[in-house]
Amino acid sequence: MAFEHPISIAPMMDRTDRHYRWMMRMISRRVLLYTEMITPNAIIFGDREKLLGHDLEAPVSLQLGGDDPEALATAAKIGQDWGYTEINLNIGCPSDRVQSGNFGACLMKTPDVVARAVASVQAAVDVEVTVKHRIGVDELDRYEDMLNFVDTVAASGCKRFSVHARKAWLQGLSPKENRDIPPLRYDEVYRLKTEHPQLDIEINGGIKTMDAAEAHLQHVDAVMIGRAAYDDPYMFAEVDRRFYGDDRASITPKQVVTQMADYAETRLLAGDKLNSVTRHMLHLFSGQPGARAWRRHLSENVWRPGSSPQVLLDALDFVQGVE
After folding, report:
1. Alpha carbon distance 254, 102 (integer Å)
2. Which of 10, 132, 156, 275 could form a disulfide with 226 if both were Cys (CB 3.0 to 4.6 A apart)?
């Protein structure tokens, strides 16, 4: 049986919010989506509608960042009650803010802490609990170090690991630099799958095309795509047919725009700003004639007093061959 979610879009701060996910769910009915990373306390004590509200774009994984098993379990249960179909723990983010809260990539140094967190969350929810991590962190960057982390966490019951194939430096590199400077080591992720066939292994990092994704799937169970999914969202229009065997007709870019205009109208009534929706659409026509004019028209006009979702429909005039 084929793996249930061979393609996913990575959780990305300030990007994979409900508006972006709504657009991507129109483009692909099957791809696994993720929220931005959210801390448990934000969910427990904060504005849940703002943090967890969604528009039935399942399957969506709720990504949590933290190290307190009890708080993680409480937040996960709330997430499940809000309709999220999976809970993912972030053990890969290297930012200073994340480190100061003792979660993200620094937790790779304490796999027993992660194992306890996984066990606690699993006891609280019925949905799958997964982990996203790096191949290494600081000096703990040998394959054997990653293997020890995975083995320890897997012993707590985790069966799916999304592996960013770069190590993280907690000092000296910014989060952006940690996405580019450490070299990609795909072979180590392949080896992890070979030596642990009972686990579901997903690969992440530097994957920019569906041809590249297909090549990786010869070695692992799934592929997670991050920045490329934001910079060229419409490339996911081929995902359902190519990776899920779903032969239903793909949505056209024009249909995406018209449906997003209707969606934006609904969100404006809910109190959101027009730009909170349209900013995710700037790269919808990436690589097509008129794409720059499309971006310019949106960027210049969504801020005007009285602007409405009609701005999106007007911007279509700048794109050639939009059908």
Report:
1. 45
2. 10
**Alpha carbon separation from 184 to 124, 166, 195, 203 (Å, rounded):** 35, 5, 20, 11
pLDDT band at 1 (very low <50, low <70, confident <90, very high): very low
Total residues belonging to the chain = 323
* DSSP bridge partners of 203: 163, 223
Q: How far apart are CA 117 and CA 144, in angstroms?
A: 22
Whether the upstream peptide bond of residue 59 has omega within 30° of 0, thus cis, is: yes
Tell me how far apart the alpha carbons of residues 204 and 166 are, in angstroms, rounded to a whole number: 9
Strands 128-134 and 7-9: unpaired
- The pLDDT tens digits for 198-221 are 999 999 999 999 999 999 999 999
Q: Which residues pair with 225 in a beta bridge?
A: 9
Q: Is 106 annotated in the active site?
A: no
**What is the Cα–Cα distance from 41 to 74, expressed in whole angstroms?**
9
**Which residue, 48, 165, 186, 107, is CA-closest to 89?**
107
The single residue of 89, 93, 150, 153 carrying the catalytic annotation is 93
Determine the Cα–Cα distance for residues 190 and 65; give it in Å rounded to an integer: 26
Give the span between the Cα atoms of 298 and 262, in whole angstroms: 16
What does the pLDDT look like over 143-188, one tens digit per residue?
A: 999 999 999 999 999 999 999 999 988 877 677 776 777 889 999 9
- Is the Cβ–Cβ distance between 107 and 113 less than 8 Å? yes
